[in-house]
Design a protein that fits this description.
By secondary structure, the chain is α/β, with parallel strands linked by helices. It has two domains: about 180 residues, Rossmann fold (3-Layer(aba) Sandwich), CATH 3.40.50; about 55 residues, S-adenosyl-L-methionine-dependent methyltransferases (N-terminal domain of TfIIb, Single Sheet), CATH 2.20.25.110. Helices cover about 30% and strands about 35% of the residues. The two termini are about 35 Å apart.
Protein backbone atom coordinates (compact mmCIF):
# COMPACT_ATOMS: atom_id res chain seq x y z
CA UNK A 1 0.00 0.00 0.00
CA UNK A 2 1.40 3.37 -1.05
CA UNK A 3 0.10 6.02 1.33
CA UNK A 4 0.40 9.79 1.32
CA UNK A 5 1.76 10.52 -2.10
CA UNK A 6 2.62 14.11 -3.01
CA UNK A 7 -0.81 15.77 -3.10
CA UNK A 8 -2.36 13.90 -0.17
CA UNK A 9 0.75 14.56 1.94
CA UNK A 10 0.30 18.27 1.26
CA UNK A 11 -3.41 18.14 2.08
CA UNK A 12 -2.82 16.16 5.25
CA UNK A 13 -0.44 18.81 6.56
CA UNK A 14 -2.56 21.73 5.36
CA UNK A 15 -5.86 20.41 6.71
CA UNK A 16 -5.14 17.86 9.44
CA UNK A 17 -1.90 18.84 11.20
CA UNK A 18 -3.97 20.22 14.09
CA UNK A 19 -4.05 16.65 15.47
CA UNK A 20 -0.28 16.54 16.03
CA UNK A 21 -0.09 20.19 17.11
CA UNK A 22 -2.88 19.79 19.67
CA UNK A 23 -1.54 16.45 20.93
CA UNK A 24 1.94 17.93 21.48
CA UNK A 25 0.83 20.06 24.43
CA UNK A 26 -0.29 16.92 26.25
CA UNK A 27 2.52 14.64 25.11
CA UNK A 28 5.34 16.83 26.41
CA UNK A 29 4.09 16.64 30.04
CA UNK A 30 3.93 12.85 29.77
CA UNK A 31 7.60 12.79 28.83
CA UNK A 32 8.49 15.14 31.68
CA UNK A 33 6.49 13.15 34.24
CA UNK A 34 8.59 10.17 33.22
CA UNK A 35 11.77 12.22 33.89
CA UNK A 36 12.56 12.53 30.18
CA UNK A 37 13.44 16.20 29.84
CA UNK A 38 16.03 15.86 27.07
CA UNK A 39 17.63 13.26 24.81
CA UNK A 40 16.55 11.41 21.67
CA UNK A 41 12.92 10.76 20.76
CA UNK A 42 12.23 8.39 17.85
CA UNK A 43 8.91 9.22 16.16
CA UNK A 44 7.43 6.37 14.12
CA UNK A 45 5.09 7.68 11.44
CA UNK A 46 6.39 11.22 11.81
CA UNK A 47 4.31 12.57 8.90
CA UNK A 48 5.05 16.20 8.07
CA UNK A 49 7.08 16.73 11.24
CA UNK A 50 4.74 18.88 13.35
CA UNK A 51 5.34 16.81 16.49
CA UNK A 52 9.07 16.70 15.72
CA UNK A 53 9.14 20.51 15.53
CA UNK A 54 7.42 20.76 18.94
CA UNK A 55 9.95 18.34 20.41
CA UNK A 56 12.86 20.34 19.00
CA UNK A 57 11.44 23.54 20.44
CA UNK A 58 11.22 21.81 23.85
CA UNK A 59 14.91 20.82 23.67
CA UNK A 60 14.73 17.21 22.43
CA UNK A 61 16.59 15.57 19.57
CA UNK A 62 14.38 13.73 17.09
CA UNK A 63 14.69 10.92 14.58
CA UNK A 64 11.52 10.70 12.50
CA UNK A 65 10.59 7.67 10.38
CA UNK A 66 7.89 7.54 7.72
CA UNK A 67 7.31 5.41 4.62
CA UNK A 68 6.08 8.45 2.65
CA UNK A 69 8.88 10.32 0.88
CA UNK A 70 6.65 13.40 0.30
CA UNK A 71 5.87 13.49 4.02
CA UNK A 72 9.58 13.34 4.82
CA UNK A 73 10.22 16.21 2.37
CA UNK A 74 7.68 18.32 4.28
CA UNK A 75 9.12 17.26 7.65
CA UNK A 76 12.63 18.32 6.69
CA UNK A 77 11.33 21.82 6.00
CA UNK A 78 9.03 22.02 9.03
CA UNK A 79 11.50 20.51 11.55
CA UNK A 80 14.98 21.22 10.10
CA UNK A 81 16.74 20.41 13.39
CA UNK A 82 15.44 16.83 13.33
CA UNK A 83 16.80 13.85 11.41
CA UNK A 84 14.47 11.83 9.19
CA UNK A 85 14.51 8.44 7.54
CA UNK A 86 12.24 6.96 4.87
CA UNK A 87 11.18 3.43 5.77
CA UNK A 88 8.71 1.05 7.36
CA UNK A 89 7.81 1.80 10.98
CA UNK A 90 7.66 -1.92 11.65
CA UNK A 91 11.06 -2.77 10.19
CA UNK A 92 13.23 0.23 11.03
CA UNK A 93 16.25 -0.37 13.26
CA UNK A 94 15.60 1.89 16.24
CA UNK A 95 18.74 3.39 17.81
CA UNK A 96 19.27 3.71 21.54
CA UNK A 97 16.91 6.43 22.69
CA UNK A 98 14.99 7.94 25.59
CA UNK A 99 11.47 7.77 24.13
CA UNK A 100 9.56 6.38 21.16
CA UNK A 101 6.28 7.85 19.93
CA UNK A 102 3.76 7.02 17.22
CA UNK A 103 0.91 9.49 16.93
CA UNK A 104 -2.16 9.33 14.66
CA UNK A 105 -3.04 5.61 14.37
CA UNK A 106 0.17 4.99 12.40
CA UNK A 107 0.65 1.49 13.82
CA UNK A 108 -2.71 0.44 12.36
CA UNK A 109 -1.66 0.95 8.75
CA UNK A 110 -1.30 -2.20 6.65
CA UNK A 111 1.54 -1.64 4.22
CA UNK A 112 1.50 -5.29 3.18
CA UNK A 113 -0.54 -8.40 3.96
CA UNK A 114 2.13 -9.94 6.19
CA UNK A 115 1.70 -7.28 8.84
CA UNK A 116 -0.49 -7.70 11.89
CA UNK A 117 -0.28 -8.25 15.60
CA UNK A 118 2.83 -10.44 15.28
CA UNK A 119 4.58 -7.60 13.48
CA UNK A 120 3.61 -5.25 16.31
CA UNK A 121 4.95 -7.74 18.83
CA UNK A 122 8.31 -7.69 17.02
CA UNK A 123 8.21 -3.89 17.00
CA UNK A 124 7.47 -3.80 20.74
CA UNK A 125 10.47 -6.01 21.45
CA UNK A 126 12.65 -3.75 19.30
CA UNK A 127 11.39 -0.63 21.07
CA UNK A 128 12.06 -2.23 24.46
CA UNK A 129 15.65 -3.07 23.47
CA UNK A 130 16.27 0.43 22.10
CA UNK A 131 14.92 2.38 25.08
CA UNK A 132 17.24 3.31 27.87
CA UNK A 133 16.09 2.21 31.36
CA UNK A 134 13.21 4.45 32.39
CA UNK A 135 12.38 5.20 28.76
CA UNK A 136 8.80 5.59 27.55
CA UNK A 137 6.84 4.41 24.52
CA UNK A 138 3.70 6.43 23.71
CA UNK A 139 1.35 5.58 20.85
CA UNK A 140 -2.28 5.70 19.86
CA UNK A 141 -4.30 3.16 17.91
CA UNK A 142 -7.64 2.71 16.22
CA UNK A 143 -9.73 0.03 17.93
CA UNK A 144 -12.62 -1.96 16.38
CA UNK A 145 -15.00 0.83 17.47
CA UNK A 146 -13.33 3.11 14.93
CA UNK A 147 -15.27 1.33 12.18
CA UNK A 148 -18.65 3.04 11.58
CA UNK A 149 -21.71 0.88 12.24
CA UNK A 150 -23.25 1.86 8.89
CA UNK A 151 -21.12 1.22 5.81
CA UNK A 152 -20.16 2.62 3.44
CA UNK A 153 -19.88 6.09 4.92
CA UNK A 154 -18.85 9.13 2.89
CA UNK A 155 -17.09 12.19 4.28
CA UNK A 156 -16.20 15.43 2.50
CA UNK A 157 -13.60 17.92 3.68
CA UNK A 158 -12.16 20.97 1.92
CA UNK A 159 -9.77 23.87 2.32
CA UNK A 160 -8.77 26.96 0.31
CA UNK A 161 -6.84 24.94 -2.30
CA UNK A 162 -7.90 21.33 -1.74
CA UNK A 163 -10.84 18.99 -1.30
CA UNK A 164 -11.22 15.38 -0.17
CA UNK A 165 -13.92 12.77 -0.69
CA UNK A 166 -13.42 9.81 1.62
CA UNK A 167 -15.43 6.59 1.35
CA UNK A 168 -15.12 4.50 4.51
CA UNK A 169 -15.66 0.76 4.39
CA UNK A 170 -14.26 -2.34 6.01
CA UNK A 171 -14.96 -5.66 7.65
CA UNK A 172 -16.08 -5.73 11.28
CA UNK A 173 -15.37 -9.47 11.62
CA UNK A 174 -11.81 -9.13 10.34
CA UNK A 175 -11.30 -5.79 12.14
CA UNK A 176 -10.30 -4.05 8.93
CA UNK A 177 -11.03 -0.42 8.06
CA UNK A 178 -10.63 0.92 4.52
CA UNK A 179 -10.59 4.53 3.44
CA UNK A 180 -10.77 5.25 -0.28
CA UNK A 181 -9.60 8.83 -0.67
CA UNK A 182 -10.15 11.00 -3.72
CA UNK A 183 -7.96 14.06 -3.42
CA UNK A 184 -8.25 17.32 -5.36
CA UNK A 185 -5.40 19.84 -5.07
CA UNK A 186 -5.42 23.21 -6.78
CA UNK A 187 -2.45 23.73 -9.08
CA UNK A 188 -2.59 27.13 -10.74
CA UNK A 189 -6.17 27.58 -11.98
CA UNK A 190 -6.99 23.87 -12.12
CA UNK A 191 -7.42 21.00 -9.68
CA UNK A 192 -5.30 17.86 -9.91
CA UNK A 193 -7.01 14.62 -8.89
CA UNK A 194 -5.39 11.61 -7.23
CA UNK A 195 -6.70 8.54 -5.42
CA UNK A 196 -5.43 6.35 -2.60
CA UNK A 197 -6.85 3.48 -0.57
CA UNK A 198 -5.65 3.16 3.02
CA UNK A 199 -6.17 -0.12 4.88
CA UNK A 200 -6.00 -0.20 8.67
CA UNK A 201 -6.00 -3.24 10.92
CA UNK A 202 -7.90 -2.46 14.13
CA UNK A 203 -6.55 -3.66 17.49
CA UNK A 204 -7.96 -3.91 20.99
CA UNK A 205 -5.90 -1.94 23.48
CA UNK A 206 -6.06 -4.72 26.06
CA UNK A 207 -4.40 -7.15 23.62
CA UNK A 208 -1.54 -4.76 22.90
CA UNK A 209 -1.07 -4.02 26.59
CA UNK A 210 -0.74 -7.78 27.14
CA UNK A 211 1.97 -7.89 24.44
CA UNK A 212 3.79 -4.94 25.99
CA UNK A 213 3.75 -6.54 29.42
CA UNK A 214 5.21 -9.70 27.88
CA UNK A 215 8.16 -7.64 26.65
CA UNK A 216 8.85 -6.26 30.13
CA UNK A 217 7.06 -2.92 29.88
CA UNK A 218 4.72 -1.41 32.41
CA UNK A 219 1.73 -0.21 30.35
CA UNK A 220 -1.49 1.70 30.81
CA UNK A 221 -4.28 3.00 28.60
CA UNK A 222 -5.20 6.69 28.41
CA UNK A 223 -8.04 8.50 26.64
CA UNK A 224 -6.03 11.44 25.37
CA UNK A 225 -2.94 13.57 25.71
CA UNK A 226 -3.65 16.07 28.45
CA UNK A 227 -6.64 18.18 27.42
CA UNK A 228 -6.51 16.75 23.89
CA UNK A 229 -9.14 14.03 23.61
CA UNK A 230 -8.70 11.30 21.03
CA UNK A 231 -11.39 10.81 18.34
CA UNK A 232 -14.10 8.16 18.91
CA UNK A 233 -12.79 4.63 18.49
CA UNK A 234 -9.20 5.59 19.29
CA UNK A 235 -7.15 5.13 22.44
CA UNK A 236 -3.57 5.69 23.54
CA UNK A 237 -1.08 3.61 25.49
CA UNK A 238 1.85 4.72 27.63
CA UNK A 239 4.45 1.99 28.18
CA UNK A 240 7.51 2.50 30.36
CA UNK A 241 10.68 0.47 30.58
CA UNK A 242 11.61 -0.13 34.22
CA UNK A 243 14.59 1.89 35.44
CA UNK A 244 16.28 -1.27 36.66
CA UNK A 245 15.95 -3.02 33.28
CA UNK A 246 19.07 -4.08 31.44
CA UNK A 247 19.74 -2.39 28.07
Amino acid sequence: MLAYRRDLAYVHDAGFSDYAISAASGLLPILRRNKITQGLVVDLGCGSGRWAAALNQAGYQVLGVDQSAPMIDLARRIAPRSRFRIGSLLKVEIPECDAVTSIGECLNYCVDKSEGRKALQRLFRGVYRALRPGGVFIFDIAEPGRLPKTLPQRVRRSGPDWALLVTIGGDSKQHILRRHITCFRKIGEQYRRSEETHVLRLYRARDLIYDLLACGFKARQIKGYGRFRLPPGMTAIVATKPEWAET
